[in-house]
């Protein structure tokens, strides 16, 4: 008898959520959505139709707003801090000056573009002018139309602030009201789980589904253990960080369980409770039963959607079937029995039959995947931290160099490898031969048609030469003795090259007038070449102009030096002896 009653009860269709009377009759595969550029957004930002179509349509423009005058400047609208963090420590006057015309938002943040739009708000990527870090700021689309709407909007911010920080809960930073709108500042994530999943290749993805399940169970455990129920868990309300960690967000419907104890409060709160998204809504919510089991159901539907790439029905037969414990086998048959079992438990029609979050976390299959997930996240986050540390060091180095421009002049750091090799095979004569004409300068420009030659590099070499040429006579004019101290090259007039040349002993200079140029001893290029075992004598004999292009370029000049009038290797040698001894002094 009881079985017969139960069967007849289970056949009675559940009432449909009030928002969705248009029923979809069956389960279907997810339709792929592609991002498009929104005409109303900045160049860099885009929002996908999914973001818009998966939410309720935006409210019509508020009719209760005070009219804005185009003729007279508006006084700065009052800024009201809503979060305790902001009330306790408002930004200093240097960052936010209330007497200024600009809003609190524009004074305290640099807007980096629109991240997305929901049904009630727009989310911007911002850089805080206070600490220089990047955040997300959600601003309600419309001004409040009355106290009821205002209170509901405020509740989201207040609820969010009340939650203790947790690695899988979106971190709250601040909230304020300005110009009749609510602003909530949170940590910045990469995107929402919904958009992330839609950008993945189509088809079931069970490993990802396990990862999502583990992260969201941790988030729910945190909420439930603190006496809260989310009541609006769905992929659109979950955010994903760069490392792939899921963060539960959007606490507009957060419900505090302990309020149930007071009868008067219970009635008040229940009247105030809004319906969440009907696609993910647990059946008992329609009967006014609010509890942690509702979140378990919503999580079950979300994981089913993500694992099977299934369009979740928002009404109709499919909606009813899901709430009667029926899993569409045409979608779930690709999943392992482990995941099917877990989903079946989570989607039990009666809340009392569903396992609690703690019971789910204790399941061997969940524990196994949770371990894997922890290790994955640890590795991913460590790698990301290391990468950002490296970037920081490079940035710091670059800034440091910009403070000491003379350092940058001395270090010939970034010409392309090819141009380095070519430069190093230049005859030393070309560097401090008596030259002052543009033709002679052209010798240093190596090969202007060479695409490997960096323009900055050739420019630098040219400029070095022009500096040198001012102290050297023109070709053809009587040449002074190179031994004369007046013409001994110094560190300064050798410029970049001095650091290379002076690292050498005269033995580096070959009798044919060519020279082996080395970078300073600490140079990694030097180390690389040493490791390669490049021998100046052997390479010198091996290389020929014909094979040069195919062989690895050597640091030793192998070609005949460019014919230059009045070039005397002997003078060059002595010049180096002089320079080296000067350096020792
Ligand atoms: N902290 C964040 N970091 C990065 N992107 C975010 C963040 N918060 C929101 N977004 C992006 O902005 C979009 C809209 O945000 P959100 O869904 O919170 O607005 P909403 O008005 O509450 O929408 P709904 O009420 O329909 O859930 C999200 O889909 C997501 O892509």
Key traits:
disordered N terminus; Phosphorylase Kinase, domain 1; disordered C terminus; 585 residues; alpha+beta; protein serine/threonine kinase activity; cell cycle; Transferase(Phosphotransferase), domain 1; globular; nucleotide-binding; single chain; binds adenosine-5'-triphosphate; three-stranded antiparallel beta sheet; ATP-binding; metal ion binding; six-stranded antiparallel beta sheet
Percent of residues in helices: 40-55%
> Given the C-alpha coordinates, what overall shape results?
globular
The proportion of residues in beta strands is 5-15%
Question: What average pLDDT do the residues reach?
Answer: 69
CATH homology-level superfamily of the domain at 191-258 and 275-378? Transferase(Phosphotransferase) domain 1
Gyration radius, in Å: 36 Å
Secondary structure tally: strands: 13
Give the low-pLDDT segments.
Answer: 1-10, 19-25, 34-55, 61-68, 261-268, 415-572, 579-585
CATH topology of the domain at 191-258 and 275-378: Transferase(Phosphotransferase), domain 1
What is the terminal-to-terminal distance? 111 Å
Which CATH top level class of the domain at 191-258 and 275-378 fits?
Mainly Alpha
- Strand arrangement, largest sheet? 2-6-7-5-4-3
Q: Structural class of the helices, strands and pairings?
A: alpha+beta
**Heterogens:** adenosine-5'-triphosphate
Keywords: ATP-binding, Cell cycle, Golgi apparatus, Kinase, Magnesium, Membrane, Metal-binding, Nucleotide-binding, Serine/threonine-protein kinase, Transferase
Main location: Golgi
Family: Belongs to the protein kinase superfamily. Ser/Thr protein kinase family. GCN2 subfamily.
Subcellular location: Golgi apparatus membrane
């Amino acid at each position: 008898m009881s079985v017969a009653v139960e069967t007849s009860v289970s056949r009675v269709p559940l009432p449909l959520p009030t928002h969705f009377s248009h029923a979809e009759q069956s389960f279907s595969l997810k339709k792929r959505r592609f991002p498009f550029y929104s005409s109303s957004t900045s160049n860099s930002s885009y929002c996908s139709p999914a973001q818009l179509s998966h939410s309720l349509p935006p409210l019509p423009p508020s009719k209760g707003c005070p009219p804005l005058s185009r003729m007279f400047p508006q006084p700065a609208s009052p800024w009201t801090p809503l979060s305790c963090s902001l009330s306790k420590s408002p930004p200093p006057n240097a960052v936010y000056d209330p007497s200024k015309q600009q809003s609190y938002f524009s004074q305290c943040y640099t807007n980096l573009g629109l991240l997305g739009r929901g049904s009630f708000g727009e989310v911007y990527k911002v850089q805080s002018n206070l600490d220089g870090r990047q955040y997300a700021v959600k601003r309600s689309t419309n001004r409040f139309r009355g106290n009821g709407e205002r209170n509901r909007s405020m509740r989201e911010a207040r609820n969010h602030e009340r939650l203790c920080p947790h690695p899988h809960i979106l971190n709250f930073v601040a909230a304020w009201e300005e110009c009749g709108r609510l602003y909530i500042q949170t940590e910045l994530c990469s995107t929402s789980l919904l958009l992330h999943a839609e950008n993945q290749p189509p088809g079931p993805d069970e490993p990802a589904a396990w990862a999502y399940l583990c992260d969201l169970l941790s988030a729910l455990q945190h909420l439930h253990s603190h006496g809260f129920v989310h009541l609006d868990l769905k992929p659109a309300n979950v955010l994903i960080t760069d490392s792939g960690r899921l963060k539960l967000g959007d606490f507009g419907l957060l419900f505090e369980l302990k309020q149930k104890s007071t009868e008067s409060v219970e009635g008040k709160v229940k009247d105030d409770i809004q319906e969440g998204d009907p696609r993910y809504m647990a059946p008992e919510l329609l009967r006014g039963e609010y509890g942690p089991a509702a979140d378990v159901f919503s999580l079950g539907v979300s994981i089913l959607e993500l694992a099977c790439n299934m369009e979740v029905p928002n009404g109709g037969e499919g909606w009813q079937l899901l709430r009667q414990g029926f899993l569409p086998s045409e979608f779930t048959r690709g999943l392992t029995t482990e995941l099917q079992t877990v989903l079946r438990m989570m989607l039990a029609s009666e809340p009392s039959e569903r396992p609690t979050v703690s019971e789910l976390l204790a399941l061997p299959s969940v524990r196994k995947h949770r371990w894997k997930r922890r290790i994955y996240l640890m590795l991913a986050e460590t790698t990301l931290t290391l990468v950002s540390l490296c970037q920081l060091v490079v940035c710091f180095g670059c800034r440091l160099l910009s403070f000491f421009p003379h350092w940058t002049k001395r270090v010939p750091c970034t010409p392309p490898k090819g141009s380095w090799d070519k430069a190093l095979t230049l005859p030393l004569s070309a560097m401090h031969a008596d030259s002052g004409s543009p033709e002679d300068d052209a010798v240093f420009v190596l090969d202007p048609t060479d695409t490997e030659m960096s323009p900055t590099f050739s420019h630098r070499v040219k400029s070095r030469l022009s500096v040198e040429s001012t102290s050297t006579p023109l070709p053809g004019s009587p040449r002074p003795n190179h031994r004369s101290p007046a013409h001994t090259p110094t560190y300064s007039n050798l410029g970049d090259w001095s650091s290379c040349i002076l690292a050498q002993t005269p033995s580096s200079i070959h009798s044919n007038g060519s020279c082996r140029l080395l970078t300073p001893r600490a140079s990694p290029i030097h180390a690389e070449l040493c490791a390669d075992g490049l021998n100046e004598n052997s390479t010198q004999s091996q290389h020929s102009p014909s094979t040069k292009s195919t062989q690895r370029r050597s640091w030793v000049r192998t070609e005949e030096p460019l014919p230059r009038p009045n070039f005397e290797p002997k003078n060059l040698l002595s010049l180096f002896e002089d320079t080296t001894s000067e350096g020792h002094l």
